Amino acid sequence: MRSDSARVLTQLRDHLPNESAGLLANIPPDPADGILVDEALRDSQSSFLFEVGLKDEAPAFIRMRIKHKSRP
Length: 72
Fold this sequence. Notes:
The protein is of the alpha+beta class.
C-alpha cells in the first residue's frame, strides 16, 4: 500500500494548484475512512479521502473524486 500512497502523492502534486502542491510534505498520504459520494452517484463516481502531511508539519485532508463508468 505504501507504493500506492507514493503514487497518490505524485498524482496530488501533478493535479493540485502549484500553491497547494507546494505545501505538501514529502511523505506519502495515508488513506482515511469515509464514504463521501451520495449513494445515487456511486455507479459513476468514487471518492477517496487521504490524510496528508504539510511542510509545516500540520495534518490536512484531501478528497479525490473520480468519475468513471461502471458499465460498458
